Amino acid sequence: MTTLNRREFLSASAAAGLALAAGGPLFAQQMKTKLYKAMIVGKINEDELKKLKDAGFDGVETSAIVPPAEAEKGRAIAEKVGIKIHSVLRGWAEFNSKDPAKVESTLKPTEDALRAAQAYGATAVLLVPCRIGGMPMPEAWDFKIEFDEKTGHITKVADGDNTKYKAYIDAHNYSTDSSTVAVKKLIPIAEQTKVVIALENVWNNLWVKPAIFQHFVASFNHPMVKAYFDIGNHVKYAPPQEWIKALGLLTVKYHIKDFKLKPDGHGGDFVHPRDGSVEWPAVRQAIDAAGYSGFLTIEDGGLPLKEFSDRLDLIVAGK
User: Fold this and answer.
1) What is the tens place of the pLDDT at every residue in 131-168?
2) What CATH number is given for 25-134+187-316 in this structure?
3) 277 contacts 258 by C-beta, under 8 angstroms
4) At a CB cut-off of 8 Å and minimum separation 6, what does 26 contact?
5) Alpha-carbon gap, residue 164 to 10, rounded angstroms
6) pTM score, two decimals?
7) Where are the domains of the chain?
8) DSSP 85-128
C-alpha cells in the first residue's frame, strides 16, 4: 500500500467532497465508456445545428435521405459548426410483403440511406424491417416466447394453449425469414459504404423480448448488421437494462425516451426522459458493462433544447 503524504490526502479528500456535494454517485467517476449527446433533425440546417451545439449537444441523427452530393454539403455544414452527423433514420420498410415488387421498392430507399450516410460521415442507418398486426396476440405483459435456436422461429408466445396465436406466430416467422433475406441483400452496400445496418423493433409486434431480438440480430453474424435499441420503446415488454445486457455490443446506437407504466405495470404512456419508469442509473451501468461508447439520441420533443441536454447529462453521469 502506498502511503499518502498530507498534501495528497487533502487533495483526494477535496475531490471526493466535491463529487459528493455535486450529488454524483461515486461509480459515475469510474465509467469505462464515453457517451455523446444527440438529437434528431430533418434536413441539415446551420442555424439549427448551432442551437444544438450551444445547448451542449455533440451530434445529430438526420431523417433527410438525400443524394450523396447534398449529404456531403450537410457534412461540411456540420463540421463547420462542430457537430457530428452520426446516423441516418431510414425508418420503416416492408420486407415481409408478399409482393416482391413492394419488397424491392423498400430496399431502394434503404440503399439510398446507406449511401447518404456515407456522405454525411455517419456510421449507421436505422432500419425497421417490417411490422405485423391485426391478429390475436398476447398483451405486452403476457409474452413468454419460446423459439428454435437454429431457425429463430417462434414456437410459443404465451403460457398455455397457443392455438389462438397461430396466425401471429406464422406471421412472425415469415417476417423473420423475409427480413433476413432482404437485409442480406443490403450487406454488400453496407460493406462498400462502411455504414452499419442498425435494426430496430419499434412497436412493430416483432422480436418483442430480449432473447428473440438478440437472436435475430446475431443470426446475421456480420459486423455490418447490428441493433438500434430504443430504451423507452421496450419498457412495456421488459426493463431496458435486461435488453441492454442481452444485446451487449450488438447495439450500435441508442435512442433515448421514457415510458411511464401504469401502477399495475400494464400499459402506460410515453413521457420525457427521466419522467417515467426507466431506471436510468441501472441503464447507464448496463451500457457501461456492455462496453458501449457512442451516441445517445433523444427521440422526443416538447422541452427546451437545454433541458433535454441537461437531462442527458444526468443520464450519462449515471444519475
Assistant:
1) 999 999 999 999 999 999 999 999 999 999 999 999 99
2) 3.20.20.150
3) yes
4) 16, 19, 20
5) 69
6) 0.90
7) 25-134+187-316
8) EEEEEEEE--TT-S-HHHHHHHHHHHHHHHHHHHHHT-SEEEEE
